[in-house]
Structure formats: structure tokens, C-alpha cells
Amino acid sequence: MLEESVDAKILEIMRAGDGFASGEALSRELGVSRTAVWKHIKGLRGQGYRIESVPAKGYRLVTAPDLITPAELTRGLATRRVGGRVVCLKETDSTNAVAFKMAEEGAVEGTVVIADTQSAGKGRLGRIWLSPPGVNLYCSVVLRPPISPVAACQLTFLSVVAVARTIERETTLIPQIKWPNDILVAGKKVAGLLNEMNAETEKVNFVVLGIGVNLNMRLEQLGSTLRHPATSLLEASGTPVRRIAFARTLLEELDGLYDRFLIEGEAPIRAEWLERSAIGGRRVKVNTGNGEFRGTVQGVDAFGALLVQSDQGALETVLSGDVALLDGDA
User: Fold this and answer.
1) Is 63 annotated as contributing to ligand binding?
2) Which of 69, 96, 113, 150 is the most exposed place for a label (fewest CB within 10 A)?
3) CATH top-level class for 283-325?
4) How large is the average pLDDT for residues 141-158?
5) 189: annotated binding-site residue?
């Protein structure tokens, strides 16, 4: 039995009882030694669980921490693939980097890597994603879809829509999507997505969905060097977000959307993406890295490219770059 599975079972048993769970009963039900039970109890305490220990009575769970742990995240998790294995790290350079390496080594589809903080969180185009500890969600998910490499970019629709749905379920806020992979609340960025792929000529080996959501950051933690205005769900709503609940809901949304993607393709998910878009029909300035132009957004194609009718009349297909809204600009 995996270490995190034993932890989860111990917590489940303690929560199910009205009082104490004896070491002997835990040992018998888990099929491990009492010494092993004690080691797991010690490990749980190290994660921040307050567990009371009384001779001749056993162990009793008093309080659980506001930490994302495998045991907490998988408790009641209703998914088929996503979250089948969960790895939670106190600190890492990048959850995407960890998940990518795990996938190269054979990690099963649905493996999730979550960190409390990142020292080198990844954003688009090589940018840094600010990742202070104890406040946000930094998450990466390994998928192995049976699709061609050219279709892998369609998974961006899936992860962006999943985050938008989760924000609606866990807060009173109304999120909007900004191409290609940002989530806005009241016009300010609250989440970003970064997908990375390993593929051969005609086959995707795996895709890592990287997701960063500003949950409970304060304004002073957002930094002063950001390219675009940013916020957090706490700052936007005035109400703290339970990180475990948010992460669990997100994994369930990802799982359901991935199932739909495998059965129906990208069309229905892209349709929802378009409904939630903050830039559909809007005038924008597009910087492709090789120059910039202005025009009106017409939509996105089946592979996630932005379609913009330029002021010069041509319908431009934008594969990558930065897009800025031109509110009221002629």
C-alpha cells in the first residue's frame, strides 16, 4: 500500500470513530505493524495534523491543517483518472518540471503534482510565475491522450475551462477567459495555464497540464514587476478560499472534461471556452514577437489559434503572442 494511502486510511478511520482509534485496531485494519502505525502518525503530525495520543485509548484527530496533502485531497475525490496518484511537495522548483520528469519515468495518467511553494514557477514564454507559500494552488497533471501532437494544444481549452468552472463553484466570482491561457476576474489576471508535451512524429507520449491559481495572496505579495494587472480570489471576493476544496473541485472538473474530450473531441469544450471569453468581438492589439497589429477578435480555431480581423482587412491566425484589449480605442 502506498504511503499516502496508509495516511488517508488512518485519517478516515479516526474521522469515522466517535473517539479514539487504538493502535491495535489501526494495525489490524491496515495490515501493518503498530510501529508502522506510529511512524505514520508521526508523519501526519509533521504535516500539521494535531493528533492526540492517550495510553490505553489510542489516537484521536483533533484538527487538520490548511495544507494540500494526498490524504486530504483524495478524501471523497470523485474522479476516474485525474488524482489516481497525488504527490504533494512542500517546495520545489516547478511542479511542471517534476511532473514532466515523473511522466518520462512512466508515471500513470492522472498523476497530480502539487507544491506549497515554487522557487522557479513557469509562466508562458519563459516568464516566472510568483509562487509564495501557503496561499495559492500550484498544480501539474500528467495526461496521456491518444491524439496526434498537432491536436495536443486543444487540451488548453480543457484546463482553462476547468479552472473557470472551479472558480464559479468555490466562490461568488464570475471569471472570464483571456486568450490563450489566462483567467481574469474583474479584468485582472487570477490564474495562468502552461501545457508542456513530450511527443514523437505521430504520437503524443504525454502532456503536462500546469495550473497556477492565485487563491489567497494579498496585494503586497503580487509584486510590482508584473506585465498585466493581477489579483487573487481573496482580494476580488473578500473571502478566503479553502485550498483543499478548490483543488479537489478542480481535479473533478478536469477529469470530467477530459472524459468528454476523449469521447466528443474538442468542439463542445471550445464552445464553452468561447462563451466564457473576455475578448470575443473585442478590439485588441496583438504582439506576435515579430511585430504587432490591431484588429477585432473573431474567435479561435479548433487548435486554439486566435482569429483576428486586422484593421487592414486580413483575417490573421495568431498562434502565439500577447493580446491587449483596446477598450474604446479606435
Assistant:
1) no
2) 150
3) mainly beta
4) 94
5) yes
